[in-house]
Structures are given as C-alpha cells and as structure tokens.
Amino acid sequence: xxxxxxxxxxxxxxxxxxxxxxxxxxxxxxxxxxxxxxxxxxxxxxxxxxxxxxxxxxxxxxxxxxxxxxxxxxxxxxxxxxxxxxxxxxxxxxxxxxxxxxxxxxxxxxxxxxxxxxxxxxxxxxxxxxxxxxxxxxxxxxxxxxxxxxxxxxxxxxxxxxxxxxxxxxxxxxxxxxxxxxxxxxxxxxxxxxxxxxxxxxxxxxxxxxxxxxxxxxxxxxxxxxxxxxxxxxxxxxxxxxxxxxxxxxxxxxxxxxxxxxxxxxxxxxxxxxxxxxxxxxxxxxxxxxxxxxxxxxxxxxxxxxxxxxxxx
Length: 313
Known about the structure:
Layout: H1 25-38, H2 43-60, H3 65-79, H4 82-90, H5 97-101, H6 106-120, H7 124-132, H8 136-145, H9 149-163, H10 167-175, H11 178-186, H12 191-207, H13 209-217, H14 220-230, H15 236-250, H16 254-261, H17 265-276, H18 283-307
Helix pairs in contact: 2-3, 3-6, 6-9, 8-9, 9-12, 11-12, 11-14, 12-13, 12-15, 14-15, 15-18, 17-18
C-alpha cells in the first residue's frame, strides 16, 4: 500500500522533513498526536492500530494465534513501502519486535521472522534500528534451536536481510557464533535453508575480505565444495559455484588450498563443464565452472600447451 497524501489542512501542523531529530522524545510525541488528530485513513494510523492490537494479544490473549498472525501480516503489507517503514520507526514500531520474538508458537515465529526480513531488506535505516534493539541474537537462536524447518527458512531469510550491506551487523553476527550458524545452514538437508545460506555466504564474502578468510579457516569453502561435488546436480549448484568463486576472487590465495586439498576438483570441473556445455538453461553455471577452472588450473593448461609446442590462442 502506498502512502496516502497528508490532508492540506494538516500539512503545516507537523514538521516531517529530514532537518528534525526523528528519534527525539518530543518529535515522537508530536508525531503520534498528529496521527490521531489528522490522519484518519493514513497508513501511519493503521500501523499504530495494528501494533496496539499485537501488543494487546501478546499481553492478554496469547492463545489468539490466528488473529495475531493476521495483524502481523497486515503490518507487513504496509511496511513494504519504504516511506511507511520510516513511519513504523517514528511510531516506535521496533519496540514491539522483541515481544513478538519471544512468542513460542511456531506460526508466530515464522511470521515474525518474515516480517523482519521484509522490513529491513535493503533498508539501511531499518537495519540500524534493528541493531539498536539487539534482535540479532534472538533470530540466531531461533535458527539454531527451533525444531521446525519452516521457521528456520524464515529465520535465515531474516538474518540475510539484516546482514546484507551492513558491516556492523555482519561483525556482530560473527561475534555471536555466526560462522557456526552458516555451516549449520550449509549442512541442512532442507534445500531452501541451504540455498539461502549459500547466498548469504556469497554476499558477505564479496563485501569483506576478512570475512572470507574467517569462512575458509572454519571450513565454509570446503563445505560449499562438498555440496556441489557430492550431491546430485540441481539448480542450487549454480549459486554454490558462484559462492565459491566469490570467495576465491576476494582472496586469490585460496586457489592453492583448493588445488592441494581437493584432488578431484579438476576432474569434477571438466566433467561438469562437459555436461553443461551448450545448454542454455545452464549458461551461468557453465560460466562459473569455466571461470573456476581457469583460476585454479590455468597454469597447468599453459604447461601442457608449452610441452606440446602448441601456440596459445
């Protein structure tokens, strides 16, 4: 839902420019009063009503799971708009998230993680607000300890949305056992969990060389190789090979470890390349295979060409 225009007769009653301190107590009190008095059908008023209902149910009627989930869904529909997400901050919406994360019901945990993911994805301001209320450890705990795969899928989605593009949260994640969480995700038998974790590893590797070194030290690179070399070929292999490439391109010294520690890598890449060659549906994966082969074994190829006295093209 898009923002409903502010009525002209109320426009001068509230300063919503970037020149004001949106986190000050005075601003928040004035903003809330402005909503109640002037914006009957504005998303800001709806957000406030939904959050109040969420709080009421959690506090007094936690058994109303279906109703609670519906209010979370309605709130999520509104905050998909960037401007509405900023209003969510203004009305103190982030204060309700820790309460939601403490609800034990599987459906509410799943809905809450999905809501968080949609709220903070590609939204630096919302990511910063999430860091202020320190929800990262709670989401890590949900992923690590919950027994339901559907909850874990949404938890890794929330983690990915929080971490991508935010080095402060990435550092906090690693300081809270994040690499063990990534390994657990890569080892999951659930394809959605494995794929989302793979993508997160790829983006974090591209964004910070230090993370790549830590990932390698803890076995992330070889777990990715295991996933692509020992399991039946599927569409996830494209992203796994891309993640491996991301780590190698970020830290070229990894090539030596790959060649020496994975004796079957050369054969695997040649065989996989032969299978993919000429198939349009696998063009990106084929490119990743060829690029990885060139990075790891170009020297071997050059030596073979030289021994045969064949001019390089």
